[in-house]
């Protein structure tokens, strides 16, 4: 990984002529009149493991939502698998683990297996569940190591187990892209390591991963490329190149300046 032009797709199952998994061009987005993402251009190639970092409130969640078509940019364009992001077909090719999955699922009176089954029919209300579906669900539960918890209610799981359930749902839907928003908040250190091992293994097997993570150390260790954001993109490239730039100080430093400014 010495190239400074970002990722390569060596060894990736997708051919070199395949469309990038995600492509943002000059993307700008504001809540009301408050810009939170400005002029961001970014390509995520198939097979990448992108760590998205930046200070609190720097627009990471918003950017991730833009990347998978949950929000539409005010200016610029976003494509996923070569198609406009907002036309994603019910989300089957994208597995999204939002930040508040823990809180939301506390209230859900459903079992782990039922959550994973949802991956087989997003947006299809009257789907007949067949043997292929059943096999895919069991394989996904097994793959993330929670087959023994299949009949437990999701609200009864620990944080780490719950995140695995949502990853299993993505695997069951045969997603090619996994988008995770700070998945290990509130998860103990050991489970967190194991969780990132799993993400690394899935990535080695060809899954493209975009991960928001506040721990810069984790990201530089685990991701194959880094995007450092604070409204604008300060850096995108591999972790080695990132370590040699001032991007981190620039992105986090300007947040401090903004904060000081706001309070003065
Ligand atoms: P991060 O994930 O880096 O913490 P976010 O994308 O969540 O950043 O938020 C960027 C900025 O936009 C923050 O200042 C946040 O308060 C604001 N924001 C986020 N979501 C909304 C929303 N739905 N409406 C208005 N402002 C929002």
Tally of distinct domains:
2
- Encode the helix/strand succession as letters: EEEHEEEHHHHEHEHEEHH
What is the helix tally?
A: 9
Radius of gyration: 18 Å
Number of strands: 10
The CATH topology name of the largest domain reads Rossmann fold
Q: Provide the spatial order of strands within the biggest beta sheet.
A: 6-7-8-3-9-10
Question: For the report, how would you describe the main beta sheet?
Answer: 6 strands, mixed
CATH class group of the largest domain: Alpha Beta
Would you spell out the secondary-structure blueprint of this structure?
Layout: E1 22-31, E2 34-44, E3 49-53, H1 60-67, E4 75-80, E5 83-84, E6 94-97, H2 101-106, H3 112-118, H4 131-143, H5 159-172, E7 177-181, H6 189-204, E8 208-212, H7 216-222, E9 225-230, E10 232-237, H8 239-243, H9 247-263
Parallel strand pairs: 3-8, 3-9, 6-7, 7-8
Antiparallel strand pairs: 1-2, 1-4, 4-5, 9-10
Helix pairs in contact: 3-5, 4-5
Adenosine-5'-diphosphate binds at residues 31, 36, 54, 56-62.
């Amino acid at each position: 990984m010495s190239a400074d032009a970002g990722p390569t797709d060596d060894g990736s199952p997708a051919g070199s002529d395949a469309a990038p998994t995600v492509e943002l061009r000059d993307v700008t987005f504001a809540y009301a009149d408050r810009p939170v993402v400005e002029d961001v251009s970014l390509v995520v190639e198939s097979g990448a493991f992108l760590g998205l970092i930046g200070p609190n409130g720097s627009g990471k969640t918003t950017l991730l939502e833009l990347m998978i078509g949950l929000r539409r940019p005010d200016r610029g364009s976003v494509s996923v698998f070569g198609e406009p992001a907002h036309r994603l077909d019910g989300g089957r090719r994208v597995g999204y683990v939002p930040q508040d999955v823990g809180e939301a699922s506390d209230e859900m009176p459903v079992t782990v297996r039922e959550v994973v089954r949802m991956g087989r029919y997003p947006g299809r209300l009257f789907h007949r569940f067949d043997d292929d579906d059943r096999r895919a669900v069991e394989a996904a539960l097994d793959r993330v190591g929670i087959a023994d918890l299949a009949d437990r209610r999701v609200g009864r799981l620990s944080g780490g187990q719950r995140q695995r359930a949502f990853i299993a749902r993505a695997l069951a839907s045969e997603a090619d892209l996994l988008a995770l928003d700070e998945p290990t908040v509130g998860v103990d250190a050991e489970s967190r390591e194991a969780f990132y091992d799993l993400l690394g293994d899935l990535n080695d097997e060809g899954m493209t991963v975009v991960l928001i993570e506040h721990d810069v150390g984790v990201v530089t260790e685990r991701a194959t490329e880094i995007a450092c954001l604070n409204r604008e993109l300060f850096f995108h490239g591999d972790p080695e190149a990132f370590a040699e730039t001032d991007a981190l100080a620039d992105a986090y430093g300007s947040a401090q300046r903004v904060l000081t400014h706001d309070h003065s």
